[in-house]
Q: What sequence folds into this?
């Protein structure tokens, strides 16, 4: 049920006609309150799409009454006219639902550098407004897909009577800090915008920020958390933060599992680091090594490429004290040959690479995927 | 003629039997003087192969009488025993040629994490010593190939009577600062080690440091410059520096042209940058964007991916003032849609991407290549 798992939310997903394929391409999520508290996290990319610039402003007010999302066009690098298109979209939602446009967040995904077809998008908003329902979460999740092969939802319900649910899209350009993704999380718990912001940033830091499919950062990444307070329950903040983290981790894992062209999901565990920051830096560097990603695709436990990647970082370590395990077999000990590489079984989809730096007590995990010919095909023909 | 184009040098390339394929795998370059002045530049990777650790020590003395290079094994991540293998190789060269082992540089390339087969390598040194000749430059260039499809040599002769020549290998792991490469440059000009070092560092900075095939830095990168002074001519330093730069640029261009699986050679020109450092940073970031590299492979002038890459840097620019041309067509103006993308002809092998930052007067160029299914195939099966 995703974004409609929590009470107080309605959603819809419709085919506006933005995509040539004729598949659903416009989603609407509405918060019926009583609270409209919200928080958001956006791409760190300095080239930001018009909807990101718009929604960043909306979120400064800490209130969101509705989110309109479209696939089929990113509305990025479209200049002042592209920004006007985003503005007009929010105004249309406000008009249909009798809301304040300044509280309507907008998110877009698709090709960069192409204007949105407003002649079909705006009627699509009207259509979606008419289809809003408390069971529309799945339709909304379907409508935001681009090259995703499946739609992604998740939810957690607390014994205390509140729920956190969400939906995500993203299969390519999963990236440095937020992946290419649009994520909407909803809850019927009663929290103010500041508490939501703290919970969302805490969750994002160790979930969406710890997946890195191909190192490319989107211009459109958006993660929103909306609270309706419809359950009437003020949650324990620690329990709520953990619930947001659980839903985020679930969605992040689904994103990696559906990464473009991937045949292996790779978890990189860096242990024995001097600091968590260094552990993340090492994990991210390993995750972006194309040679290693190709080797994993070929089920080749090529630990030398792991060491070569670690060697390009500034993290604290002695090259002669590095240990590396692949799926539990310590193929590298003390920076040199360890256990027999033939003992490594890489037949499964999930591969775990453990890099022990022997430099401290900190650790971090990050998910990535292999590099495949399918990735090349999908991304060399994407715009044609 | 490569390394034997300059007077005072002999070289050989033989099949020692290190490679299972039975192709040449051991090269020897000898400086017969009268001078033995030399300079070297090595990988910035902190995980350094045994021959790099050895040769860095040799070069501290500023004198090199011979260089022994092998393909078929990198001797990286092989521990203290691997270092002993490098030492033994240098001693063998010294013994065969009556030299000081402390003036014999060693370079290796091939798989990481595997010991070298010293039982065939050492007899190979004897064989190579017996085949040394003043016309052996080509055989040496052939013997250092790994996945290279062609061997690479270059030379420049000054009207003043001296020559700079060289050979290079490298087709994969072309990287952050030095690419995966072994390069030996020779000259019969008369310069001391300090002058050679200045010329080599100056040349490397704008040639081997400005190619980046796949962002992966090797554990073995080595660039050496040996001077015999056999011409008897003390060169004009500026002219000599320019000659070293010309030979280095020629070899670097050959490396990119032979990058693993590539179908397009891509030059990235960043102009209008605030500083040269920022121009290089932007160029390198663009060159490592897998999505863009796939698009170029598909002959898709996807300028949005150029902007998305620029946006992840910390360089000085305003997103609304970025201009991007692909093969001379300014498809992006002021951060938005520019000339018709259908005007871009990408049929040729060479593609030029120009990113104008409108932030200053500095510029830099960097070469990379596209990302292809062939790259994936070659690197997923490399060690098997």
A:
């Amino acid at each position: 049920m995703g974004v409609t798992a929590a009470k107080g939310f309605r959603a819809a997903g419709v085919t506006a006609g933005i995509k040539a394929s004729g598949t659903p391409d416009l989603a609407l999520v509405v918060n019926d309150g009583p609270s409209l508290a919200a928080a958001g996290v956006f791409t760190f990319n300095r080239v930001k799409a018009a909807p990101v610039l718009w929604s960043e402003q909306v979120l400064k007010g800490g209130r969101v009454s509705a989110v309109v999302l479209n696939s089929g066009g990113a509305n990025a690098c479209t200049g002042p006219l592209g920004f006007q298109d985003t503005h007009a979209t929010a105004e249309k939602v406000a008009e249909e639902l009798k809301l304040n446009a300044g509280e309507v967040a907008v998110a877009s995904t698709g090709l960069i550098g192409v204007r949105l077809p407003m002649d079909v998008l705006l009627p699509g908003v009207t259509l979606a407004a008419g289809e809003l329902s408390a069971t529309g979460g799945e339709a909304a999740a379907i409508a935001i897909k681009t090259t995703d092969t499946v739609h992604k939802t998740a939810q957690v319900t607390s014994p205390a009577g509140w729920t956190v649910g969400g939906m995500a899209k993203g299969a390519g350009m999963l990236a440095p800090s937020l992946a290419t993704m649009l994520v909407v999380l909803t809850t019927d718990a009663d929290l103010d915008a500041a508490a939501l912001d703290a919970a969302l940033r805490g969750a994002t830091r160790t979930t969406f920020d710890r997946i890195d499919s191909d190192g490319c950062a989107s211009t459109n990444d958006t993660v929103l958390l909306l609270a309706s307070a419809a359950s009437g329950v003020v949650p324990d903040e620690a329990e709520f933060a953990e619930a947001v983290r659980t839903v985020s981790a679930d969605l992040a894992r689904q994103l990696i599992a559906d990464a473009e062209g991937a045949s292996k999901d790779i978890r990189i565990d860096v242990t024995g680091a001097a600091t968590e920051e260094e552990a993340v830096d090492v994990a991210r560097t390993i995750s972006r090594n194309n040679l290693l990603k190709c080797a994993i695709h070929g089920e080749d436990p090529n630990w030398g490429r792991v060491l070569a990647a670690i060697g390009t970082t500034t993290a604290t370590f002695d090259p002669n004290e590095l240990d590396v395990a692949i799926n539990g077999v310590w193929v590298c000990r003390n920076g040199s040959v360890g256990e027999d590489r033939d003992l490594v079984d890489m037949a499964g989809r999930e591969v775990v690479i453990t890099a022990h730096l022997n430099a401290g007590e900190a650790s971090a995990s990050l998910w990535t995927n292999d590099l495949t010919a399918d990735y090349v095909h999908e991304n060399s023909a994407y715009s044609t």
Summary: The first helix of chain A runs from residue 50 to 60. The CA atoms of residues 171 and 259 of chain A lie 4 Å apart. The mean pLDDT of chain A is 93.
